[in-house]
Amino acid sequence: MDLNKSPRRELEIRRLGVMKYADALELQANLVEERKAGRIPDQLLLLEHPPVITLGVRTRNNRSHVLASPQTLEGYGIEVFETGRGGDVTYHGPGQLIGYPIVDLKPDRCDVHRYVRDIEEVMIRVAGSFGVTAHRSEGLTGVWVGRAKLAAIGVRIARWVTSHGFALNVTTNLRAFDFIVPCGLTDRDVTSLEKLLGRPVEMADAEDAAIRAFAATFERHVVSGLRTAAAGPA
Amino acid sequence: MATNVVMPQMGESIAEGTIVRWIKKLGDQVDRDEPLFEISTDKVDAEIPSPAAGVLTDIKAKEGETVPVNSVVAVIGAAADVSSPDTSAPAAAPPSTDGGSAPSNRLPEAAVGQPERAQPAAGAMRPAGEPRRGEVTPKDDLRRQKSSPLVRRIAKEHDVDIAEIRGTGISGRVTKHDILDYIESGAAKKQAAAPSAPGPAYRPGENVQIVPMSVMRKKIAEHMVLSAHTSPHVYSVYEVNFARVTALRNKRKAEFEAAGAKLTFTAFIAKVAVDALRQFPIVNASVDGDNIVYKKDINLGIAVALENGLIVPVIRNADEKNLLGLSRAINDLASRARSKKLSPDEVQGGTFTITNPGIFGALYGLPLINQPQVAILGIGGIEKRAVVIDDAIAIRPVCHITLGYDHRLIDGAEAGRFLSFVKERLENFDEGWI
Predict the structure, then answer these.
(1) Chain A residues touching B46 at Cβ < 8 A
(2) Can you tell me the distance from the alpha carbon of A106 to that of B203, in angstroms, rounded to the nearest whole number?
(3) Topology (CATH) of A10-219
(4) CA distance A129 to chain B (A)
(5) Contact across the interface for B42 and A111, Cβ inside 8 Å
(6) Is the pLDDT score of B389 beyond 50?
(7) How high is the ipTM of this complex?
(8) What backbone torsions phi and psi does residue A163 show, to the nearest 5 degrees?
(9) pLDDT on residue B158
């Protein structure tokens, strides 16, 4: 790809609907390889997961932050997944907007801190588009409103190609977080756009906001995925 | 020619990184740009590719270690300089175990797993870049030593003997997978012994409050599960006419109070139980493997309900006390249990336990044995009932007493004799025993 020809790199959006965590992992792994090989442009996967609790690499052998018993979780179809991402334990489920950017950070964005701060920026902009003022919290990755976490971030980078990403609570059933100590923080709360606004929010609206915020923050040109552009499933 | 692998600078503000996982193990072949290890910084995990092709000859930063940016974490060497016995491989080539075959007769691949500087010919015969496979079968312990530092660390953390694990790795080497499976299956075995859980306790989003158990609650839970799994519990319930004890208690109550003790039904029962334990030593015993351990001391536990739990203080050498002594001990232990002033040794060493579900209104209870004891006496409520005496209906205070016993040691006949003895003594309590 000749970067000089286009001022902005392309970003392909994939709206995947509800996708099982394992399937999303596999898709990401394939896309990461494709991206590394330069066969596809940067990707932003947007989806929801069925209920699942995921453990970051550092918590693989320590599940003390999962409060519910394995029987309780298993019996109700809540999977527990060990992942390759950073971060502690978290919950994903319906009503939560999952974003998995498969983006090549080379050549100008090779800085993992910058990448995480940029993802936070995207989340803050999405919240802002709904009239919610969210912020970073010194030393705590993620996006917060007051002392409550609105969006969680866990990222993996291989040869500067990203995977995993963010989880923004749109209309998430927040009671599900009772199963875990989110991100290992015992004294913090979890919130959602719905809770903050006192009204339901359409997932598609949140997706659109995320696409715009991501494209703006990462200076990418969206080539597909916005409902107003080439809409609909292929 | 060796290449140093350094902790990469993953961002301007990043001064150090933590090694999360070595994807390649010591001695592994790596290609240039093949993922070598994973590092972690602030919610980000990154996979670091090898800067060169060759063999991973040295790992200088272990998993979990945090090192400054640009410090050397590993060395990639040419295939022939695999060494570094200090970190993983045994220092010297293991002695041949297959009797007749001299080193020179071995198949080329057979030597691959060993330090190759000791086997230059064999090393040279292996096509460059071919993965190392099919080692000579060394002695078991030697093979185990070759488990990776990670596996050995896991073994140490979990107090697992690597020799007990069947390895599926090269030459039976125990891999990380093997040991994790082993540990998990060990835990799974323990769980399998438990009755299968009745499904999850609650649904996500269900209107529940989740409160961690107190330390006492956890201990009670553990203890009771242990007891239920340890002893095959059998119960016998006897009805006891408490007219005699009630009369005696009313008669002597004031006298005891003057002596500073409350004369309770429990004290009468304790006195009779101690006598019964003397008579039937198998009830004052424990199981130790295939042995029966008869306890020569009678240390009587009295279960005391607390606000949020239960504790069983112990009256040591209860058989040396008369009714007044037992009354004093019961009053004292119960009040100190409720004010949390018991010392640890006052709740240990019991050989038999009395519990009193009757005070909450139960007709009788079916208590679990307080391990490692083999029996527990439950006292039901004492209430006036219509009873038939010499073909006439009479009103008498009646109490149901239960013996829960471990059928490994105690059969129904023995339990019956024990309870008959207790019933007989309570119904005909001799004032001289006071």
Answers:
(1) 112, 156-158
(2) 45
(3) BirA Bifunctional Protein; domain 2 (3.30.930)
(4) 26
(5) no
(6) yes
(7) 0.71
(8) -150, 180
(9) 72
